[in-house]
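Hi,

Apologies if this is the wrong queue. I'm a grad student, and the batch job for Malonyl CoA-acyl carrier protein transacylase from Rossellomorea aquimaris produced an output file that my downstream script rejects. I'm not sure whether the problem is my script or the file. Here is the sequence I used:
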Amino acid sequence: MSKIAFVFPGQGSQTVGMGKELAEKYQEVGEYFKRADEKLDVDLSSIIFEGPQEELTQTTNAQPALLTTSIAILDRLKSEGIEADYTAGHSLGEYSALVAAGALSFEDAVYSVRKRGEFMEEAVPSGQGTMAAVLGMDRESLREITHSVTEEGNPVGLANLNCPGQIVISGTVQGVEDASSRAKDEGAKRVIPLQVSGPFHSELMKPAAEKFVSILDSIEIGHAEVPVIANVTASPVSDAEEIKRLLIEQLYSPVLWEDTVEKLLELGVDTFIEIGSGKVLSGLIKKVNRRVKTYAVQDEASLTETIAKLKEEA
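Support response: The file is valid. Your script probably expects a header line. Output copied below for reference.
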């Protein structure tokens, strides 16, 4: 029996026009964008559908925009009777995964990630923190480098463990520069500085996590109806209190995406459906295991094709 995981992309996957075609074709899809506008009292749907890209890319817009797009598209899949055995999301995508699993309402989630984006932006003054992708180095070697640089007074750490040979580091500008230089000296194939607005998933995000507690206290978090693989632990979580605790820790902890995919494979998942914008997670999943089936659902064509193939395999 085939097991399915719904997976949801995080910040960086946003593109102007995402979800527009489906929102125009299906009234129930369009309703999600209207509900997000009403909840946030912002014309978010115009930013999503028309841009400009610079405005959509701002953390406070990108986070609710991606969540809205993912959940709107998810509605179409579910209306065709396609359900998941597990859900997971990359960083911000974990909130979409929790909505998909029934632990968060759409309105509470879109409000939460808007505030999450605000607090992340405020945590570190602009220009003081950054991130970089390190290619071709194992995690233990890179962890030793970041630990050594941090000990010297320039905080930096592992932020996203995406797939074998692709790890993102995060911290102060000096810390990331020093760690990047040492990684290259010690055999990393490439280091790519990332265009981000802050040092996400690093210890420098602890002030954001402290503020964010009050937001999670103000919304209703329920038990997940299907297990969600948490970023912080790469283990299934269903309990409401544990979900809340892990969402706070997630802000300053590494995203264990490679481990998450490995855990889902171990649990018998053989079909991954990426729901939202882009195909980033599908690519990372294939780098963990080439044999699994991956589908990326982002528009009418990919939705129709995915539904047809899943029904054929059922």
